[in-house]
Amino acid sequence: MNHDTIIELLPWYVNGTLAPHERAAVESELASCPRCAAELEELKRLHETLHQMDADAPGPSEMLFARTLARIDQRRAGQKPESALRRWWNGLPALGRAAAFMPVALVIAFILVTRYAAHPVREVPLKGVTVMQTPVSESETVAQNGVQPAPAAAPLAKTIAGAPAPSRGGEISPTIVADRYSVNKPVMEAAAPPALASRLRAERPQLIRTGSISLIVPDVERAIGQLSAIAQTQFGDVVSLTDETPSQPGVRHTAGLQLSVPADRFDQSLSSIAKLGAVSSRTIGAENVSDQIVDAQARLRNLRRTETDMLRILDRAGKIPDVLEVTQQIASVREQIEQLDGQLQSLQHRVAYSTISIYIQDEKPIAAVEPSTGTQLNDAWQAAQRNVRAFSIALASRVLGFLAFAPYWVPATLLVFLIGYRLSRRSS
Amino acid sequence: MDTEADPGQAREAQWLRLTAGGDRSAFEQLFRAYEHRLYRYVLGLVRDPRTAEEVTGDVLLEVWRSAARFRGHSRVSTWVFGIAHHKAVDALRRSAPAHVEIGELAQRPDAARGPEETALAGSDRRAIAAALDELTPEHRAVLELTFLNGYSQAEIAATVRCPINTVKTRVFYAKQQLRRILERRGVRSEMP
């Protein structure tokens, strides 16, 4: 590879996506060519600058997601919805579509074969536990609640599986029950020892819960007032509000709000918000930050201990350089403590207060205001006057134009008259 | 490229699969993962925050609608940024119909270094950032895809839909253009 080819490869050497042989070629050129090395430095600087710019750049509006959901819903309402099956079908390659008929054939064959082989057993009795008939998969739970299954469910299932629970003659072991079937909750809590229940409460995951909801309301102005009232009654706040009142008729009045409410009032707030209008979409999400909080707390404890130790050393230090060094170290530890403390408090605040984004739109587009009969008559009279004036001006301008051309048409008319007159005299 | 090598990529592919099935919470995850990156990329091209936000919304709506068409031959990110690039270029065309595309120059410029060749290394970040804003959208796009998104030549070619050689020349010219802008502004060693 020559020098020019290498120069061209350098940007991808910086981002680390070159093939091994290209990378080797670049490295050997870099070792011998100072121009390539200088070029590399420049590219690294550019790389760094772009990353810095990216970190400093602002993001899109908080309401973008809610607005996009509303657009999805509008599209759905406006056109025939494309079913999941159809989408799946469209996404298949030609061979896949042909292959898709295979399971259909298999299912038909299966139905035919099993039609006469009845399954008499519908319920499996198990000591102390009622087994529901319908298996509930994880994805179904998500779809029903819109929330990711709380991680607390996993340790619970494990504990039950590990607990000595003889399945005396039962065909299904408790492990399978806990994994595959939804179990009546009160029975389960009764089966769990009291210590376990309290431990589970203590280990409840620290979740940052967020929700977004799109509503179609009869009156946006009133809904905004009601939402502020809900925020107040739930001890929360309206964090942001964008109200877009359209200027021309035919466009809907929309508004976006963000509420911050105490986490334990999240569900309550969401259900009172949903009552304000027709819900067109709703999403609830949760981010588990238990690990981050525990980690931050542990680091904070360690740093505080280090600080105490250093203060003790400072007491014993005699020489000035030693004192200065220890003081510097303490300052650095203090800074870390404050930073970490800030992070921890911010996390705890986000766990304690949930954010709800609400996007509301009017059910009807803004209508043109219907004027009164008097106004209409007045308008008609004024329009007529305007028309008469315009007509008169147009007429007058044409007449004037005609007059202006008199030097042409007056002699021509006279000539015609003269010829006519002569002809009539000659014939008489 | 092995699409499942990185757990992050596998997770994004999973979100996209769920989105194709109409799962809104998976769509939200995907949305949150991309909205900022997309917005900044589009903003770099269209330069107007309002248009950038509109285009970002359009892109993510398109992701929702076409999720089932993602075949997994590329990274989710390349696919999403391909849509974004296309939509941003469309928006640019709509806003300025007379916009003249910077064609690739016919021949390679002389590889000899002029006096401006040192401008990039000696300029401070703010000056480089301002000069980046003066680049044409085509040039800015390839620089961002290379240095911010960390894309390979083939991935950039797929995103901006042009041959790999064009990608190489575009990056080359983009750098040269950047140096010229810095030189014109008389920016010299202002390193902090």
Briefly say what this structure is:
Chain A has 17 helices and 7 strands.
How does this model look, in words?
The complex is a heterodimer of chains A (428) and B (192). Chain A contains 17 helices and seven strands. By secondary structure, chain A is of the alpha+beta class. Chain A has a five-stranded mixed beta sheet with strand order 4-5-7-3-6, sandwiched between helices. A two-stranded antiparallel sheet of chain A has the order 1-2. Chain A is 63% helix and 13% strand. Chain A starts with a helix and ends with a helix. About 18% of the residues of chain A have low confidence. In chain A, α1 crosses α2, α8 runs antiparallel to α9 and α14 runs antiparallel to α15. The longest helix of chain A has 33 residues. Chain B has a domain of 99 residues: Rna Polymerase Sigma Factor, Chain: A. Chain B is an all-alpha fold. The radius of gyration of chain B is 18 Å and the shape is elongated. Classes of the chains: A alpha+beta (428), B mainly alpha (192). Chains A and B meet through α1, α3, α4, α5 and α7 of A and α2, α3, α6, α7 and α9 of B.
Percent of residues in β-strands of chain B? under 5%
Estimated structural class of chain A? alpha+beta
> What's the number of helices of chain B?
9
Give the mean pLDDT of chain A: 76
Q: Which regions of chain A are unreliable across 5 or more consecutive residues at pLDDT < 50?
A: 118-192
CATH third-level topology of the domain at 1-99 in chain B: Rna Polymerase Sigma Factor, Chain: A
User: What's the alpha carbon Rg of chain B, rounded to whole Å?
Assistant: 18 Å
SSE string of chain B: HHHHHHHHH
State the total count of DSSP E strands of chain A. 7
Features of this protein?
A: 428 residues, alpha+beta, five-stranded mixed β-sheet, 17 helices, B: 192 residues, mainly alpha, Rna Polymerase Sigma Factor, Chain: A, 9 helices, elongated, disordered C terminus
